[in-house]
Design a protein that fits this description.
Shape of chain B: globular
Radius of gyration of chain B: 18 Å
Order of helices and strands of chain A: EEEEH
Helix content of chain A: under 10%
Structural class of chain B: mainly beta
Structural class of chain A: mainly beta
CATH class of chain B: Mainly Beta
Number of strands of chain A: 4
Strand content of chain B: 35-45%
Shape of chain A: elongated
Largest sheet of chain A: 2 strands, antiparallel
Oligomer: heterodimer
Distance between the termini of chain B: 26 Å
Helix content of chain B: 10-25%
CATH architecture of chain B: Beta Barrel
Radius of gyration of chain A: 32 Å
Number of domains of chain A: 1
Strand order of the largest sheet of chain A: 1-2
CATH topology of chain B: Elongation Factor Tu (Ef-tu), domain 3
Distance between the termini of chain A: 87 Å
Largest interface: A-B, 14 and 11 residues
Number of helices of chain B: 2
């Protein structure tokens, strides 16, 4: 476990309010340091990959389907002649 | 071996004193770092009372109060022992000897791992005692033991 994780209590940062840390005498920003070192912080901001909001239309979705469905027949047999 | 605290890098076991608690935090500006320390001992002992009863072949015990103490040996640094003008830290200003003579309560910390963020240290308050500087021709430097008689509990903390 990295030492800086000791500064969390129940996942809450207990260190400096400005989230600065000191490593070998040098002051760093906690989040930047963790990112550089590959340290996963309990309260780290997850980088979400934002997908563009785009409704995908499958233009081939209706291939292989009959077109009759959903089209009511006028007289039931589709021959345009009414039964007498 | 994982977990062992190796202090041979010379900047990990650090005794820091101040007239306020913030001034005694390891690595803080104006904290009085005792130099030339040869060894330091943190003693945390619960007081106990033992008693024996006729129906038992072994004694029993219960705890009373904790008795805590910091002890160390150091080579004397004249500025630290006798004081050096310091308007922020009175312990540094008057030095260890005068602080002991005046029986002034001081705050202290013992850093175990250094002064980086997340490093463990033990802190508290107490009184400086046990100073006994000695010098001889065979040992041609002044050395002295010292103790901090802890007033209250020791506290475990991490450097922020």
């Amino acid at each position: 476990m990295n030492k800086i994780l000791r500064l969390y209590s129940n996942g809450v940062w207990q260190g400096n309010p400005d989230r600065t840390i000191t490593v070998k005498g040098v002051t760093h920003n906690l989040d930047e340091y963790a990112k550089e070192q590959g340290i996963e912080l309990p309260d780290g901001k997850k980088t979400k990959v934002l997908k563009p909001f785009k409704k995908q239309v499958n233009s081939y979705a209706d291939m292989g389907q009959t077109f009759d469905e959903g089209h009511p027949e006028v007289d039931g047999d589709g021959d345009s002649q009414g039964e007498e | 071996m994982a977990g062992v605290i190796n202090v041979t890098s010379s900047n990990q076991a650090i005794l820091t004193l101040g007239n306020t608690a913030p001034l005694a935090v390891p690595g803080v500006t104006n904290g009085l770092v005792i130099p030339l320390v040869q060894d330091v001992t943190v003693s945390a002992s619960p007081g106990t009372v033992r008693y024996s009863t006729l129906d038992s072949t072994s004694s029993s015990a219960f705890t009373t109060t904790n008795e805590n103490e910091i002890s160390f040996n150091m080579l004397l640094d004249d500025d630290v022992f006798f004081g050096l003008t310091n308007t922020d830290n009175e312990v540094a200003n008057v030095g260890l000897l005068s602080t002991s003579i005046a029986k002034t309560e001081i705050f202290f910390s013992v850093a175990f791992e250094g002064t980086d963020s997340g490093d463990y240290y033990v802190s508290g308050k107490g009184f400086i005692g046990g100073l006994a500087p000695t010098a001889s021709m065979d040992q041609a430097v002044w050395i002295s033991p010292g103790t901090i008689i802890v007033n209250g509990e020791l506290t475990k903390s991490t450097v922020s």
